[in-house]
Amino acid sequence: MKRTLYLKLLGGYLLFGLLGFLIIATFTYHLTFQHLEKKEAQNLYRESALISSSYAQNYFSNSMTLDEINEQLSALDTYLNADIWIVDTHGKILINTAATETTEETIPDFDMTDDYFQENMLSVFSPITVNYKVRGYVIIHKSESYLTASANSLSAIAYTTLALIFAAAFVVLALFTYVVYIPIRKITHAA
Prior knowledge:
The chain is an alpha+beta fold. It is about 65% helix and about 20% strand.
């Protein structure tokens, strides 16, 4: 009976490690990814609103050329690690910072809610309004692979923390074994 108590304690220790791993692998990773996605979407939306209210509005007001705006946005797209599009209301892409050269590309059946990419992308948009009329949209696309890599690196930290907690629990189990269990077993055996 005394032996089974120690085996139950050892089983509880192993169950603690397994449950901790499962929680981090599912729950923690999912929450981390959602948090990163939400923060990144907020940052990209803030940038798209800024571009919409300044650069793009200046183009539609004829105070800046597309080349001047493209120059500014190319630096910003490198900083954001994202693609920036300026699209008119008919789906004509006026600026695409991912394109190496300027092309006259039009999105057929343009709809802001459609997905135009093969891979998963985080996309945000802001309307460009001039004199209370929507003239186009600033659309920023960022690959979700960046978010996945960030979530994986943060999960690796959580796994390391779990390993340290598991090691600390093992030290407590070893102390229990040598300080409590072995002396009680010797007393029981002697009796």
